[in-house]
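Query protein
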Amino acid sequence: METMRERFAAVTTELLDHDPRLAVVLADIGADSLRPAADRHPDRVLNVGIREQLQIGVTAGLALTGLRPIAHTFASFLIERPWEQIKLDLVHQGVGAVLVGAAGSYDWPAGGRTHMAPGDVALLDTLPGWTVHVPGHPDEAETLLRHAAADGDSLVYLRLSAHRNEAAQPVEPGRLLPVRTGRRGTVVAVGPMLDAVLEATEGLDVTVLYAATVRPFDAAGLRAALGDRADVVLVEPYLAGTSAGAAHDALADLAHRVLGLGVPREEHRHYGSIPEHLAAYGLDAAGLRARITAFLR
């Protein structure tokens, strides 16, 4: 089964062949999968080694020359480790780039805490101007990558994961997609959480919205989908409550309630597997159903 990272490598290789404005900056991770592209475009595929602060600095420098750079490594190394460079070299200088992270919150439990970044999207929320895509399937990752690569000089974070849904959805960047309609509440499933949410809400009279883009948050789409009650449950594959503020803002003039479900702040110090971590966080179908029904009761 093809992964999002494999699709990223294939699509990025193709894009480099056809768009002379694109460049890729790596920090060792992913270098093998992009070796054919590096052989053909050695001036536009740069591997700086395990130096993530330098990776962001080089990315910003390429953007200043007029290129559209794509930086790729694990999310913890891409967002958390070079945070100051993201803040200053990219945002403060007003240049655009596409940051493509992998192994987000629980993709590789055996890698330990160093390879987990459940706070990545929340961190980016402290800075202005970011578009954040969270695909749930390789087809969606391709759609969102192509959109980001062609999206002028914007700042984009594309969050890839080994956790995925069985089927792709017809995502449109920036829009919530209605998947199921109900009257007694609205559940927003972000990226790879959709399959578990659909299983958890089977037989419940709720609307299910799918978000493959979480920033900017589709406030109009949320408001349009509300049924009889403005009760909203957010199910995100990263830090619980990350999008709660955006949902509250969208519903500020309405009496409403918001429940944010996601990865807890408490650290689970066991390796395990992705399904075991999801169960421990209450993000499997059984855990989600219990918490959603309790909230909407």
In short: The chain has a mean pLDDT of 96. DSSP finds twelve helices and twelve strands in the chain. The CA atoms of residues 132 and 236 lie 13 Å apart. The two ends are 39 Å apart (CA to CA).
